[in-house]
Design a protein that fits this description.
71% helix; 2 domains; coiled coil; flat
């Protein structure tokens, strides 16, 4: 259900948020009071009768059909997974099903409490990584729009590149202004990219730490 229903909901909410930022030109800050006004149209447009029916059918809930889910595990063998992923060292966040299948093939008792717990952990971490990626992409868009549309008050252009003394009034050409604005834009972009990189590093480190702790716990229980 989370893939069939909530992924389109996330996309529709992102569209509502983008439209809001475009209409306001990024000049009005986004507050908690704006959340429901953006969320409700996305919810209504997403959770239609047709989509809900597809979600229940895709998961084998209504009509009852457990083979819809079981066939995904039956038709995936470790050999096929190895051939598909031979060119990479790790599964991506979207490939949590392949990771769980590989886990079942490698663990002696795939139905043990520890194995099931580890499989649930893989699914949880994969979902968290996808959500974090959506959040990072949203922050990138927001930073780009703020940099492009918002005016920067009390910012002085670096027109004077050299340290020599200038006496009296100075006349600056349009080219000097363009170059100064370009240097300022580059400096701002580098600073924002550095902040995003630090945020991504912190989130990935936290997810990696949690994953390693679960692996260590599974090894202790075996």
């Amino acid at each position: 259900l989370d893939v069939v229903c909530f992924k389109p909901l996330s996309s529709n909410y992102s569209c509502e948020l983008d439209n809001h930022l475009q209409v306001s030109q990024g000049l009005s800050p986004l507050s908690k009071g704006d959340f429901f006004a953006l969320f409700w149209p996305a919810w209504v447009s997403t959770f239609t009768e047709n989509l809900i029916s597809k979600a229940f059918t895709a998961t084998g809930i209504s009509p009852v059909n457990p083979d819809v889910i079981l066939d995904r595990f039956r038709h995936i063998s470790p050999d096929s997974l190895e051939s598909v992923s031979s060119g990479s060292t790790a599964y991506s966040a979207e490939d949590w099903l392949k990771a769980c299948t590989t886990l079942q093939a490698e663990v002696k008792d795939s139905r043990s409490v520890g194995a099931r717990k580890l499989g649930q952990t893989i699914h949880h971490l994969s979902s968290q990584v996808e959500l974090l990626q959506v959040e990072v992409d949203g922050l990138r868009k927001k930073l780009y729009q703020n940099r492009k549309r918002q005016k920067q008050p009390n910012r002085q252009l670096d027109l004077q590149q050299h340290q020599e003394y200038h006496g009296g009034a100075m006349m600056w050409s349009p080219r000097a202004f363009r170059e100064a604005r370009a240097r300022m834009a580059v400096a701002e972009q580098e600073a924002q990219e550095e902040e995003l990189k630090k945020a991504e590093t912190r989130e990935l480190a936290a997810a990696s730490k949690l994953y390693k702790e679960k692996i260590a716990e599974e090894k202790r229980e075996q």
